[in-house]
Specification:
Elements lengths: L6 E5 L4 H12 L4 E5 L12 E4 L16 E6 L11 H25 L3 E5 L13 E2 L10 H20 L3 E5 L2 E3 L5 H10 L16 E3 H13 L7 E3 L8 H11 L11 H10 L3 H8 L3 E2 L2 H7 L7 H10 L6
Parallel strand pairs: 1-2, 1-4, 2-3, 4-5, 5-7, 6-11, 7-10, 8-9
Helix pairs in contact: 1-5, 2-3, 7-8
Length: 321
Amino acid sequence: MGDPRRAVAVTGATGFIGRALCRRLLTAGRPVVALTRGPDPQGLPDGVEVRPIGDLADAPAAPDALEGVDAVVHLAARVHVMRPTPADADAFHRVNVTATERLAEAAAARGLRRMVFVSTAKVHGEGGADTVYTADDPLTPEDAYGRSKATAETALRGVESRTGLPVTILRPPLVYGPGVRANAAALARLCDTPWPLPFGAVRNARSLIALDTLADAIAVALDAPAAAGRSYLVRDGEDVSTAELIRRIRRLQGRPARLVPVPPGVLTLGLRVLGKGGVADRLFGSFRIDDAPIRRDLGWTPPLTLDEGLARMLAGEPPSS
């Protein structure tokens, strides 16, 4: 087990997941060191030590960046872009692969006990009605972001093999919580209207994970001996259809569901005509993952229900408070 007096270093500490993780670790009594690009990052919780390390994609971390650190969590990443260009693919590799490998090499050189890398369930693909991904399934990503994360995972296993650094990889699906942007935020705004919504006939199933649930899984994986060298998919305790998700969000907003059962095929056709095929895939497609191994190996269960996670998202409650 990790020494609770030893610090955990976190990259991406000012981000959506990073802030929640810092609070979770601090609440557990673990000192936290934020490895940042610049000397004056914004949005860090009180009590986090800041160590500027520059851009890891440009140069390896200085040897003293990890002094006194027991383990490191790597969250910093370039995330999705809607219409990636060749330049975006290069940037994904630079940030998500090169920087990740350099951090792992620095952690190994310093003799750290554990590195946790937060990847994405999208390394397995984009899902489907009859697909339930397991962590042992092949890595078959379909976009530049997923490909960069899959390549980073391979690079990390290479560092682990060469140096003996124990690496744990977590693959979450879509993360929602206070301060979320993009898809989950757009859906919450759409629900918070008086309009009927045409999604009553949608019967898909999607795995999601609440922000604080993911932070808890990371914290547990840091110290679990069984997690060394393993890759885990991680999710909430239940999957949900788009229709059911809207019902629950609107109930928490104090609104009636007001769902109209329009056939998904009709909606998909309309969205594709409008050039919104990706939106149709996210609204009507299924994406399911199997998280049984992390529950079995680590004795971990999600600390929040889906409804509790949604309530925190809608309330804007500070992560892990």
